Amino acid sequence: MRLMADEEQQAEAPSGPSAEDEKRAARARRRAALGGARRTLRDGFSSTLRDRLAELTRTAGDVHDLDERADIYGDGVVEALEQRVAGLLGFPAAAFFPTGTMAQQAALRCWAGRTGNSTVALHPLAHPEMHEEDALTVLTGLRTVHPTTEPRHFTADEVRGLGEPFGTLMLELPLRDAGFLLPSWDELTALVDAARERDAAVHFDGARLWESATHFGRPLTEVAGLADSVYVSFYKSLRGLSGAALAGPTDLIAEARSWRHRYGGNLFQQFPTALSALAGLDRVLPELPSYVAHARVVATAIGEAFAASPGVPWFRVHPDPPHTQEFQVWLPFDADVLTEAAVSQAEETGVALFGIWNRAGAAPGLSMTEVSLGAPALEWTHEDVHAAATDFASRLPRA
């Protein structure tokens, strides 16, 4: 009887917070600190519903006639957005998609049908390989080959040297998981030429193509015009609510619309997303070159601050200088330690220089974070960044 009573008391005793509760509390703390900082480098994605709705209401009337009937299955404002994108990229047609994953699957399977080859040559760090749970193969039936496994863009010679035929060459511009890397203009044109020599179609994963034109020193139409089709995103750089577009030849886009329907992407109404995308094209797109230029100022200041900080034994800013307004910073500390330093800095000073850090590959004690600039970054001087980076370094444990 005594044993049963003890067991009942143990069952009734409070067990304390679970590991999952602690994780949720840590996430909430990070969001509150980083999202509530008075100074950040990027427009926050942690805005409240009220903030996003107010922003959409404030900008929508400037980009489209709000007395027009709401869209139904892709007409109206969605059609206007498609025409705008086609013109910006220099293609005869474009189709809106709810996600870039869906847009690229449609494009690549369309090219497979036209070339008669279901093999796609792409980088192993490209988005379909890293972030789509093998959707390209599982849902679309395509297979992939890799001209290189190095964390850089492959070369024209590597494309020519692939030991088997492929129907499409896909280039992610910039290659995000390798550090937002872009090839030079000559390297890019050589890659396209090499694909043509192999009788392959060329598709650009241009989720961040909008800001890449600055690096190439060419207009968007000239950059996009190298490819047979291009996908672009509306929410990554342009601050839209979501969505993407696929641009290309009229017949390819017509077939892609059919695949969009089959994939369940032909939504009844999409006017909030379309309006936010048009606002991004009007308001953010013209500013992107200034963000790219300022990324060099920010990267230089971070590097100088870390080089002068005794608590930083080693660091890397990659690429140096940045190719777009986004780049990586690497440090030889555990990700939890670096994230805590970023959170505590935001809590105590109101300054959020860095966000979440992640373990870098298989190397223990090596971590990386992505630095992404938006409109708020333009208010940071070299001295501001240097001071924030110095303060961040002072929060790291000494060896």
Automatic annotation (TrEMBL):
<keyword id="KW-0663">Pyridoxal phosphate</keyword>
<dbReference type="GO" id="GO:0006567">
    <property type="term" value="P:L-threonine catabolic process"/>
</dbReference>
<dbReference type="InterPro" id="IPR015424">
    <property type="entry name" value="PyrdxlP-dep_Trfase"/>
</dbReference>
<dbReference type="GO" id="GO:0006545">
    <property type="term" value="P:glycine biosynthetic process"/>
</dbReference>
<protein>
    <submittedName>
        <fullName>Threonine aldolase</fullName>
    </submittedName>
</protein>
<dbReference type="InterPro" id="IPR015421">
    <property type="entry name" value="PyrdxlP-dep_Trfase_major"/>
</dbReference>
<dbReference type="InterPro" id="IPR015422">
    <property type="entry name" value="PyrdxlP-dep_Trfase_small"/>
</dbReference>
<dbReference type="InterPro" id="IPR001597">
    <property type="entry name" value="ArAA_b-elim_lyase/Thr_aldolase"/>
</dbReference>
<feature type="domain" description="Aromatic amino acid beta-eliminating lyase/threonine aldolase">
    <location>
        <begin position="74"/>
        <end position="302"/>
    </location>
</feature>
<feature type="compositionally biased region" description="Acidic residues">
    <location>
        <begin position="1"/>
        <end position="10"/>
    </location>
</feature>
<dbReference type="Pfam" id="PF01212">
    <property type="entry name" value="Beta_elim_lyase"/>
</dbReference>
<dbReference type="GO" id="GO:0005829">
    <property type="term" value="C:cytosol"/>
</dbReference>
<dbReference type="GO" id="GO:0008732">
    <property type="term" value="F:L-allo-threonine aldolase activity"/>
</dbReference>
<feature type="region of interest" description="Disordered">
    <location>
        <begin position="1"/>
        <end position="33"/>
    </location>
</feature>
<comment type="similarity">
    <text>Belongs to the threonine aldolase family.</text>
</comment>
